[in-house]
UniProtKB/TrEMBL annotation:
Belongs to the non-flavoprotein flavin reductase family. Residues 16-160 form the Flavin reductase like domain. The keyword Oxidoreductase applies. Keywords: Oxidoreductase. This is Flavin reductase. GO terms for molecular function: FMN binding; riboflavin reductase (NADPH) activity. It comes from Histidinibacterium lentulum. Pfam families: Flavin_Reduct.
Length: 163
């Protein structure tokens, strides 16, 4: 049995935030085929052969509903100048893509974000429970990389690589 009482969640969140990450937007379609997405920094590589990646989504996140049963999604790794995009996909709103330039995926019928420095088009492979989050594993079907600096996230703030 896991003991939830020993660690203060706020202290834990702050300590997790000391781990600097990149920032991605995971894009997908909802059950009615409308484009949507969610800002995610829990992204990680998982396996090379077979090609797998993972990220975790809070159980309350709406996007979790659309990431299941072999459905397609894309992980867009944001560039340093895409802070606005990161915040837009991190807030609930009807049209998350409003004003965000996008294009159709190569192998997936999902909208992908213009200007990302890498893109992984995926098929949902598995989901695993993880406390108040769910771990989502995607099989990479297609990838693209581009030049440019990454956006970073550290201690609750966006950051950039130093010169
Ligand atoms: C930089 C950044 C990283 C985030 N990473 C995650 C994450 O890995 N998992 C998660 O569940 N929420 C994460 N969030 C919060 C979600 O983006 C946010 O709650 C969003 O509104 C959820 O949208 P949805 O309810 O439409 O799925 C992150 C937010 C920011 C700003």
């Amino acid at each position: 049995m896991l003991d939830a009482g020993l660690i203060d969640p706020r202290a834990l969140r702050n300590a997790f935030g000391r781990f600097a990450t990149g920032v991605t937007v995971v894009t997908m379609r909802d059950d009615e085929g409308r484009p949507t997405g969610v800002t995610v920094n829990s992204f990680s590589s998982l396996s090379l052969e077979p090609p797998l990646l993972l990220f975790s989504l809070g159980n309350a996140q709406v996007s979790r509903r659309w990431l299941k049963d072999g459905r397609h999604f894309a992980v867009n790794v944001l560039a340093a100048d895409q802070e606005q995009v990161a915040w837009q996909f991190a807030k609930p709103r009807d049209d998350k893509f409003e004003g965000v330039p996008s294009f159709p995926g190569e192998r997936c019928d999902v909208p992908c974000i213009d200007g990302a420095i890498a893109r992984f088009e995926c098929r949902h492979h598995a989901s695993y429970p993880g406390g108040d989050h769910e771990i989502i594993v995607g099989e990479v079907l297609h990838l693209e990389t581009a030049g440019g600096d990454p956006m970073l996230f550290y201690s609750g703030k966006m950051a950039r690589l130093a010169e």
